[in-house]
Design brief:
The chain has no helices and six strands. It has about 70 residues and is an all-beta fold. The mean pLDDT is about 95.
Length: about 70
Protein backbone atom coordinates (compact mmCIF):
# COMPACT_ATOMS: atom_id res chain seq x y z
CA UNK A 1 0.00 0.00 0.00
CA UNK A 2 1.04 3.60 -0.49
CA UNK A 3 -0.18 6.37 1.79
CA UNK A 4 0.85 9.99 2.30
CA UNK A 5 3.00 10.64 5.36
CA UNK A 6 1.48 12.68 8.17
CA UNK A 7 4.22 15.27 7.63
CA UNK A 8 2.97 16.01 4.09
CA UNK A 9 6.52 15.59 2.77
CA UNK A 10 6.76 11.83 2.39
CA UNK A 11 5.05 8.71 1.11
CA UNK A 12 4.76 5.53 3.16
CA UNK A 13 5.11 2.28 1.22
CA UNK A 14 4.15 -0.98 2.97
CA UNK A 15 4.11 -4.59 1.82
CA UNK A 16 3.66 -8.09 3.21
CA UNK A 17 7.21 -9.45 3.22
CA UNK A 18 7.99 -13.15 2.85
CA UNK A 19 10.83 -14.83 4.74
CA UNK A 20 13.75 -15.70 2.48
CA UNK A 21 13.21 -12.84 0.05
CA UNK A 22 14.84 -9.41 -0.34
CA UNK A 23 13.08 -6.30 -1.58
CA UNK A 24 14.12 -3.27 -3.60
CA UNK A 25 11.95 -0.18 -4.04
CA UNK A 26 12.18 1.49 -7.45
CA UNK A 27 10.62 4.71 -8.70
CA UNK A 28 9.90 6.59 -11.92
CA UNK A 29 8.28 9.90 -12.82
CA UNK A 30 6.57 8.16 -15.77
CA UNK A 31 5.46 4.50 -15.62
CA UNK A 32 6.16 4.05 -19.34
CA UNK A 33 9.85 4.85 -18.72
CA UNK A 34 12.50 2.87 -16.84
CA UNK A 35 12.29 2.60 -13.05
CA UNK A 36 15.36 3.36 -10.92
CA UNK A 37 16.19 1.87 -7.53
CA UNK A 38 15.99 4.15 -4.50
CA UNK A 39 19.50 4.13 -3.03
CA UNK A 40 18.55 3.49 0.60
CA UNK A 41 15.90 0.90 -0.33
CA UNK A 42 18.09 -1.76 -1.94
CA UNK A 43 18.00 -5.43 -0.94
CA UNK A 44 15.84 -4.88 2.12
CA UNK A 45 15.48 -8.03 4.25
CA UNK A 46 12.10 -9.61 4.96
CA UNK A 47 12.20 -8.11 8.48
CA UNK A 48 11.54 -4.73 6.84
CA UNK A 49 7.98 -4.42 5.56
CA UNK A 50 7.86 -0.76 4.64
CA UNK A 51 9.78 2.28 3.50
CA UNK A 52 9.28 6.03 3.82
CA UNK A 53 10.29 8.08 0.78
CA UNK A 54 10.63 11.86 0.80
CA UNK A 55 8.51 13.60 -1.81
CA UNK A 56 10.66 15.18 -4.51
CA UNK A 57 9.06 18.50 -5.49
CA UNK A 58 10.86 18.33 -8.86
CA UNK A 59 8.57 15.44 -9.81
CA UNK A 60 4.84 16.13 -9.36
CA UNK A 61 4.08 12.45 -9.96
CA UNK A 62 6.10 9.54 -8.62
CA UNK A 63 5.40 5.89 -9.42
CA UNK A 64 6.77 3.01 -7.37
CA UNK A 65 7.58 -0.62 -8.06
CA UNK A 66 8.60 -3.28 -5.56
CA UNK A 67 11.10 -5.83 -6.81
CA UNK A 68 11.26 -9.17 -4.98
CA UNK A 69 14.24 -11.53 -5.24
CA UNK A 70 15.69 -14.61 -3.61
CA UNK A 71 19.01 -13.67 -1.96
Amino acid sequence: SITPGTDGASMLLNWAAVTGRVYTVLWSSDPSNAFSPITNALNLPSSIQGFTNAINVSFPKMFYRLEVQKP
